Amino acid sequence: MEDLRVDADRLRASIEVSSAIGGTENNGVQRCAATDEDKRMRDVFAEWVRELGCELRIDEMGNMFAIRPGRNRRLGAVMAGSHLDTQKPGGRFDGILGALGALEAMRSINDADIELERDFIVVNWTNEEGGWFPPACMGSGVWTGSISKEWAYERKDRDGKTVFGEELARIGYKGSFPCDHRKWNIEAAYELHIEQGPILWNMKQRIGAPKGILCLHWYDVHLEGTANQVGPTPMEGRNDALLAFSEMCQTVNKTAHQMGNMVATVGEVQNYPNSRNIIPCRVHFTVDIRSWDDKHALQAWELMRREFEIIAKRLGCRIRSEEFWKVEHATFDQELVDLVLESARELGIGGRRMVSGAGHDMSEINKVTRGAMIFVPSIEGRSHVEAENTSWDDCARGTDVLLRCILKMSQRGR
Ligand code: GLV
Ligand code: MN
Ligand code: MN
């Protein structure tokens, strides 16, 4: 068992199958949750689970759980996984490495004919990205009780045309098992993931063991000005909503720089009527604020909001802002984090402690069980883009560390 390694070629082949489902011209993947591409990937995943002889459980949010029974079923299970949906468009590894890496770990344990003490569960969480149906971490958020199933079902796509619950049913993945963590007995959860930032890549380190995940605060801002003909309308006295937005966008950036220990981003903007010869009368934009310190992030929002009000007043625009979604920072379980570093050391890989700037399902899972993550380098620190890349060797190394953590945890009695 000590010498057990995953099959790197099989892992790569599985990721390559995934890369072709919703694959883009620029080597990325576009496979948003509850779309036809998501269905095709889920069908493949389900087939792979069946080949392993595992029970596949699909819950009301479409979360998919492959369950491999252990010797002592009264003990809490060890869970590992991530998500198979992507940004619009996204890369080949974000989430996918964690879900297919966990599957590869299960395949390797099966091949070695090992009976684990605890159940081992591989999970594909629904709509981690929220790239088409915001917010992110929807499947895991309902599972932990952070958001309600009904609210999640009612979410509209970014164009406001389709409804999440209906689309999930349409692709055949609105399951019947209750989406509720209290129906499960989980002792520990691991998520293998690409780092999505530049730290491991720049430091030439192979494994990262985050102590936790930054908080994620999401806001919506709506501006209303006055549309008019651009030619005859003098520059003075205009109520240009896009001009107000442009100052607010600067405010977001400036506030994050001035306050430090945080990042803040305007990622989405809609401008109406979006015509070159009409003064913009309506703008919607989003603000994403992240920090290890939730209070600090809230203070930043307060400052931004006050400055937004001043800008809006000066330019004669009406403003409405609201919180859309909030996840507090997550602190991982110390024993599980240490196990990542210990496993990496034993495998001769080495690793470093860090924090996760990206949000993950583990922000949610960690609320109801003990959790930790394993990071591998993102080439040039790029992610949420089609160019996102991680070497196959790093994919295999990270999955070996995951496998070792699963083996160790599943033998630990409690
Ligand atoms: C999730 O992908 C995030 O926004 O960090
Ligand atoms: Mn992810
Ligand atoms: Mn992502």
Describe this structure in words.
This protein is of the alpha/beta class and 414 residues long. 36% of the residues lie in helices and 21% in strands. The strands form 3 sheets. It has a 6-stranded mixed beta sheet with strand order 1-2-4-3-5-14, with helices on both faces. The longest helix is centred in the C-terminal third of the chain and has 21 residues, at 294-314. The protein is elongated, with a radius of gyration of 23 Å. The two termini are 21 Å apart. Bound molecules: glyoxylic acid (GLV) and manganese (II) ion (2 copies).
Output the keywords.
6-stranded mixed β-sheet; 5-stranded antiparallel β-sheet; binds glyoxylic acid; binds manganese (II) ion; single chain; 12 helices; 414 residues; alpha/beta
**Assembly level:** single chain
Strand content: 15-25%
Residue share in helix: 25-40%
User: What about the largest sheet?
Assistant: 6 strands, mixed
The largest sheet has its strands arranged as 1-2-4-3-5-14
Ranges where pLDDT stays below 50 over 5 or more residues in a row are none
Distance between the termini: 21 Å
Helical stretch tally: 12
What ligand molecules are bound, each kind once? glyoxylic acid, manganese (II) ion
**What is the residue-mean pLDDT, rounded to a whole number?**
97
| Rg over C-alpha atoms, rounded to the nearest angstrom | 23 Å
User: How many β strands by DSSP?
Assistant: 14
Summarize, please.
Helix content is about 35%, strand content about 20%. With about 425 residues, it is an alpha/beta fold. α1 packs across α3, α8 packs antiparallel against α9 and α10 (about 335-345) packs across α12.
